[in-house]
Structures are given as C-alpha cells and as structure tokens.
Write a structure and sequence with these properties.
Oligomer: single chain
Low-confidence stretches: none
Order of helices and strands: EHEHHEHEE
Strand content: 5-15%
Strand order of the largest sheet: 2-1-3-4-5
Structural class: alpha/beta
Radius of gyration: 13 Å
Shape: globular
Helix content: 40-55%
C-alpha cells in the first residue's frame, strides 16, 4: 500500500524530518511504500537545519500543490504526533477524507478511519 505521511513541520527542530523518517522506515519494514513530504523536500534541496526562512508565497504554493498531488496518488494516510496543531496536516487529512483515502494508525498501520 502507498501511504502518505502527514504531520507538523513548522516550528519544530529540523522541520520534524526525524519523525517523518522514523515512520517512513517503519512503513518500509511493514511492506508499504511511503510518501514523505520530508523526502520530497530533500529532493528539491530544502535543508531541515535552515528551515523555510525566506520562502516566497509562490514557493509555498508550489510545495502545497506538490504535497496534495502526492497525497492523491496514495492508498492511505498516516498522521504523525502533533498533526492537529498543523494547518497543513489538517488540510491533508481533510483532503484524504474527501477522497475516501483511509487513515491508518501510526503504531500498527491498521485502518482506523475511512
């Protein structure tokens, strides 16, 4: 199953990449194909130690579009701890609900919501 990882990034050290990486690695170990915004950010050269200072409005729009496009290609979504405090993660979950993409629990990756 292709699984999108959603969670908070802004205001968290290293943009919370370590938490995204930990869940990504556990998804791989469980036989899933993870889609991590942290990995997508790395692909375009975003350094988690530098953060997003200096990003333009257009850069943010491009990132949001990229992430929502990636989510739409997934079979499920998993939410990182603290997701409820993230505007982006809440929006991603809303889109997943709208598209009937099931939500998995972050411990055992079992469907918890459809």
């Amino acid at each position: 199953m292709k699984v999108y990882i959603a969670g908070p990034m802004q205001g968290i050290p290293e943009l919370n990449f370590p938490a995204f990486d930990e869940v990504r690695d556990r998804l791989i170990a469980a036989g899933h194909v993870p889609v991590s915004p942290a990995d997508l950010d790395r692909e375009v050269g975003i350094d988690p130690k530098e953060g997003t200072v200096g990003f333009t409005d257009q850069m943010w729009k491009d990132i949001i579009k990229r992430d929502l496009d990636a989510l739409q290609e997934c079979d499920a979504i998993v939410m990182l701890e603290g997701w409820h405090r993230s505007t982006g993660a809440r929006a991603e979950l809303a889109v997943a609900h709208w598209m009937k993409i099931p939500r998995l629990d972050r411990t055992h990756f079992q469907v918890m919501e459809r």
